């Protein structure tokens, strides 16, 4: 009975992970362009690029592996007084479960950034992204009820599943806005909102109208310079999609020592994870690590193990500006 109960709990854990599997990160400040297209070009610098690796669910079975890579460029034409244009490109890949279910997407992003005062300390930006999503699966790795011969699942028996393809494509459109305000030399704030999957992409292997529903995202960060050696960065992230909600709150602490900045922090994903952060910033190069400690009711199955995440970001600056949504 205990063994059967454990398997039920594990199955429920997979369901919870699957619900959150669509572009799901813990390091929200290191994946901005994927969270909100209006953040493209909103940073201190000219060119910024980075990547992210995430693994979760390894304590249960085959881990869910996520990769992202992106780059963004900031243009400041002289004809656009106190304004700028942000351009970006991003790639995303997620592999889940025994069936080799993969989601791969690529986006082109553009934003317009408008300053509202002489110092460019108050700004707003609007952005959109256009991309393609591919979803594929290896059905030969899966077993279905028709293949049960009374003793075991027989892979030589036809599954009877009416799927039309094992690889499907769909266009995808996203839109967002962001407002940032450098209140003074010590306090910088940014708040944004984005709507993902405006066209509700159809991604199903069967002849049905199953679609990815709209996803609404809200996020914000406040960067406070306490002293020359200490900065605190509290923030939040909230998303809702087809009655599935995710809320993330927490704060990072930056300790400045000469040309180095050390990152430490603690975040909480409501009813799911406690997430410690650690990292380093040197010469506009960021390396940050976080780990999701699962504290939900499913911790019996996960043994508190959630997922690890690593981000690497490099910024190249031809000149400094204060027209960003967030940055170290």
Give the tally of β-strands.
14
Strand content: over 45%
By secondary-structure content and strand pairing, the structural class works out as mainly beta
In round numbers, the mean pLDDT is 83
Q: What is the third-level CATH name, the topology? A: Porin
Report what the structure shows.
The protein is mostly beta strands and 328 residues long. It has one domain (2-316): Beta Barrel (Porin), CATH 2.40.160. 8% of the residues lie in helices and 53% in strands. The protein has helices at 2-19, 32-35, 299-302, and strands at residues 47-56, 64-75, 83-96, 101-115, 122-136, 167-182, 187-196, 215-227, 230-241, 244-257, 260-269, 273-282, 285-294, 305-316. A 14-stranded antiparallel barrel has the order 1-2-3-4-5-6-7-8-9-10-11-12-13-14. The chain is globular, with a radius of gyration of 22 Å. The model is unreliable at 1-21 and 322-328 (pLDDT under 50).
Give me a quick take on this structure.
The protein has 328 residues and is mainly beta. Helix content is 8%, strand content 53%. A 14-stranded antiparallel beta barrel has the order 1-2-3-4-5-6-7-8-9-10-11-12-13-14.
Describe how the helices and strands are arranged.
Layout: H1 2-19, H2 32-35, E1 47-56, E2 64-75, E3 83-96, E4 101-115, E5 122-136, E6 167-182, E7 187-196, E8 215-227, E9 230-241, E10 244-257, E11 260-269, E12 273-282, E13 285-294, H3 299-302, E14 305-316
Antiparallel strand pairs: 1-2, 1-14, 2-3, 3-4, 4-5, 5-6, 6-7, 7-8, 8-9, 9-10, 10-11, 11-12, 12-13, 13-14
């Amino acid at each position: 009975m205990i063994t059967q109960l454990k398997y039920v709990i594990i199955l429920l854990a997979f369901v919870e992970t699957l619900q959150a599997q669509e572009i799901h990160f813990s390091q929200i400040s290191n994946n901005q362009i994927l969270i909100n297209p209006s953040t493209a070009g909103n940073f201190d610098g000219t060119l910024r690029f980075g990547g992210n690796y995430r693994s979760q669910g390894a304590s249960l079975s085959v881990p869910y592996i996520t990769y992202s890579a992106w780059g963004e460029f900031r243009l400041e034409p002289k004809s656009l007084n106190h304004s700028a244009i942000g351009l970006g490109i991003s790639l995303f890949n997620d592999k889940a479960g025994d069936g080799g279910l993969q989601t791969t997407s690529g986006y082109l992003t553009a934003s317009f950034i408008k300053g509202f005062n002489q110092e460019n300390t108050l700004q707003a930006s609007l952005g959109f992204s256009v991309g393609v999503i591919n979803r594929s699966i290896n059905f030969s790795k899966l077993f279905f009820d028709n293949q049960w011969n009374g003793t075991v699942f027989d892979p030589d028996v036809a599954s009877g599943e009416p799927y039309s393809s094992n690889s499907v494509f769909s266009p995808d459109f996203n839109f967002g806005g962001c407002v940032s305000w450098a209140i003074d030399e010590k306090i910088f704030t940014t708040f944004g909102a984005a709507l993902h999957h405006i066209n509700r992409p159809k991604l199903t292997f069967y002849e049905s109208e199953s679609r990815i529903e709209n996803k609404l995202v809200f996020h914000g960060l406040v960067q406070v310079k306490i002293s020359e050696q200490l900065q605190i960065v509290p923030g939040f992230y909230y998303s809702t999609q087809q009655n599935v909600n995710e809320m993330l709150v927490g704060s990072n602490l930056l300790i400045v020592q000469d040309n180095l900045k050390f990152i430490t922090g603690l975040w909480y994903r409501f009813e799911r994870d406690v997430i410690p952060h650690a990292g380093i910033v040197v010469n506009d190069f960021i390396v940050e690590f976080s780990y999701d400690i699962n504290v939900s009711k499913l911790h019996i199955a996960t043994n508190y193990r959630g997922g690890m995440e690593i981000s690497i970001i490099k910024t190249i600056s031809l000149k400094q500006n204060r027209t960003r949504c967030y940055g170290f």
